[in-house]
Design a protein that fits this description.
Layout (H helix, E strand, L loop, with lengths): L7 E6 L3 H11 L5 E7 L2 H11 L3 E4 L8 H11 L4 E5 L2 H10 L3 E4 L6 H18 L27 E6 L3 H9 L9 E5 L5 H12 L3 E4 L10 E4 L5 E7 L2 E7 L11 H11 L4 E5 L8 H9 L3 E5 L9 H8 L4 E3 L1 H12 L5
Parallel strand pairs: 1-2, 1-3, 3-4, 4-5, 6-7, 6-12, 7-9, 8-9, 12-13, 13-14
Antiparallel strand pairs: 10-11
Length: 346
């Protein structure tokens, strides 16, 4: 077997024996995946990781002896292995992603054969993506340098941010310290229903700007961040009062709903040069074509660089297409947004 076709070695961690067995059978049907072991709790998992050296770990969060969040925090400094969380609880998932998990899959609510087949398909895809992820030990948070002062920007400016795998923490890193006077921001992060609302609530507790899950006809205002709802496309629109959003269900675009391409396309058409577009870590190419349209229509566009991405997919394609005005490490993007809004041009 060639290196490119080498099977991805997976360790399953879940306290349900039946679920572990069913998961193993489902994943082993994928020719690119080999389940090399399973564990009923994190303590057993750590022992197996030391001996089996899996490429990816799948795990639930609520487990005996140690919860999954603490396990991830202990695991990553010793073995920087990609972890895909399997859970139905949004808060647990967000805590796990914050602790260092690469991605997650929602457990099927109804265990019909079709639901489970879809779940296995999604999990298999996430495992393949995770096997390519750049997992880093999370350093102790440094004292952040002060954000540059924002000189009052024009009211017709807007910021659009798109991300996927690794994006929940990347988006937070960009928007956390943006001042409350920052122009309105709209965001697409690939997440299912329920998770986007919980994510918006979490950001709202941390950021200086106000954050909410987008609803149809929400106004895009200074000091406000709107997060696209799961399974709803987010489009920018404008009327005599200013910008607002359309949040509507529809078919997947570029493989996703919400789609970054849909959002960026609308910003390119509506805001033109009065916009900043940011594409962050994620698998695939959703957003790359839309960011190119934004740049072609006069917007300033920023792409996350390879070294700081969990998965350098979406930003890479956008860069290769010519859609990125400037490529930067994640910790420089917030400052760059302020710099551009202040009228500083490279």
């Amino acid at each position: 077997m060639t290196p490119s076709s080498k099977k991805i070695r997976v360790l399953i961690v879940d306290d349900s024996l039946l679920f572990r067995k069913t998961l193993e059978q489902g994943l082993n049907r994928d020719p690119r995946i080999e389940v090399v072991g399973s564990a009923a709790d994190p303590i057993d998992a750590m022992n197996q990781i030391n001996s089996l050296r899996p490429d990816v770990v799948t795990m639930d969060v609520e487990m005996p002896r140690m919860n999954g969040i603490e396990f991830i925090k202990k695991l990553i400094p010793i073995h920087p292995i990609p972890v895909v969380v399997v859970s139905s609880l949004p808060l647990n998932v967000l805590d796990a992603l914050s602790a260092g998990a690469v991605d997650f899959v929602k457990k099927p609510a109804v265990r019909s054969p079709q639901d489970f087949q879809n779940f296995i398909r999604d999990l298999g895809f996430k495992i393949k993506v995770a096997s390519t992820a750049h997992v880093r030990q999370r350093p102790a948070a440094p004292v952040p340098p002060p954000m540059p002062t924002l000189i009052s920007p024009a009211d017709n400016m807007i910021i659009a941010i798109g991300a996927s795998t690794g994006g929940t923490e990347a988006i937070l890193a960009v928007v956390r310290d943006l001042p409350a006077t920052t122009p309105g921001i709209i965001v697409v992060q690939h997440m299912p229903p329920g998770f986007t609302n919980m994510y918006a609530q979490r950001l709202n507790k941390i950021c200086k700007m106000k954050v909410k899950e987008a609803e149809n006809n929400d106004r895009v205002e200074r000091g406000r961040i709107l997060i696209a709802a799961g399974e709803y496309h987010l489009r920018l629109a404008r009327d005599p009062r200013g910008y607002f959003v359309k949040s509507e269900q529809g078919p997947k675009v570029s493989g996703h709903c919400p789609s970054v391409d849909v959002m960026f396309d609308s910003v390119a058409s509506v805001a033109k040069r009065n916009a900043v577009g940011v594409i962050l870590t994620g698998m695939g190419q959703d957003g790359a074509n839309g960011l190119l349209k934004m740049r072609q229509n006069g917007a300033y566009t920023i792409g996350q660089d390879k070294d700081s991405c969990v998965v350098y997919g979406m930003p890479m394609v956008a860069f290769q297409l010519g859609g990125v005005s400037r490529q930067l490490p994640l910790d420089k993007i917030g400052d760059e947004i302020i710099r551009y809004l202040n009228g500083v041009r490279s």
